[in-house]
Design a protein that fits this description.
240 residues; alpha/beta; globular; six-stranded parallel beta sheet
């Protein structure tokens, strides 16, 4: 009985961390967490401030790719049964897919789902354990979707949840496969309290010759369905 209670506590705690997007010096948008969740309040920025910060950093020419990793599209259960979905305009879809579609609508970019041979557990408790195991092994899950004609894109939006204050291991596979030198990378994600953590700095280290926008978009997972206006405001600040 004690072991069962302990596991329930661990599951509840990690449920707040698994989809977390942390902020370690980066600005987030759309974060309305309560103090009881131990979250960081997002700094509210005027779009003009974003535009000034991004001036010269986001190319106005070239194609845009909106790449994202959604657990719901890489799950051992159907997408609507996954632990990482939201109801958006009456449709059940993966949270990262929903955010990617909002960005695509504004930027007119092309969507790209990062898919892997791994079938992640749809059950939150099992997913917690699996994510920890992948990190402990420093795994590189095999990618089953691949970007065609990478040279044609100048801006790459990259969306992901943060697992155990780090990128999902499949994102390491993604950055291992592609050299984004000379391109602009713009991160976005959803979280449950801690925003981006150190993931943007990690991307900078993995892609040292790319321009990584540090003012990415991060939103609490419960606010994903209503994130469109915040995303539009953020993108306007980036020149879209």
């Amino acid at each position: 009985m004690k072991k069962k209670k302990l596991r329930m506590v661990l599951v509840m705690v990690f449920a707040l961390l698994l989809t977390a997007c942390g902020n370690s010096g980066q600005t987030g948008r759309g974060n309305n967490d309560t103090a009881g969740q131990g979250s960081l309040a997002a700094e509210q920025k005027d779009p003009a401030a974003w535009e000034k910060e991004a001036e010269g950093a986001v190319p106005k020419e070239g194609k845009v790719l909106v790449a994202y990793f959604a657990v719901a599209e890489n799950s051992d259960v159907d997408a609507v049964s996954s632990a990482s979905v939201s109801d958006v305009n009456g449709q059940t879809k993966g949270r990262m897919a929903a955010l990617a579609e909002m960005i695509q609508e504004k930027t007119k970019g092309e969507l790209f789902s990062i898919k892997t041979s791994v079938k992640y557990p749809g059950d939150i408790g099992k997913l917690i354990d699996y994510a920890q195991e992948e990190q402990d092994k420093d795994a590189r899950p095999e990618l089953t979707s691949h970007i065609e004609n990478l040279d044609g894109y100048s801006v790459i939006f990259v969306g992901f949840p943060t697992w155990w204050y780090d990128l999902p291991q499949v994102l390491y596979s993604f950055f291992d496969e592609y050299d984004f030198s000379g391109k602009t990378i713009i991160p976005f994600n959803s979280h449950n309290g801690s925003q981006f953590s150190g993931t943007i700095e990690t991307i900078q280290k993995l892609e040292p010759d790319a321009a990584v926008i540090t003012d990415g978009f991060t939103v609490n997972e419960r606010d994903v369905p209503g994130a469109k206006s915040d995303i539009d405001e953020w993108l306007s600040g980036l020149g879209y």
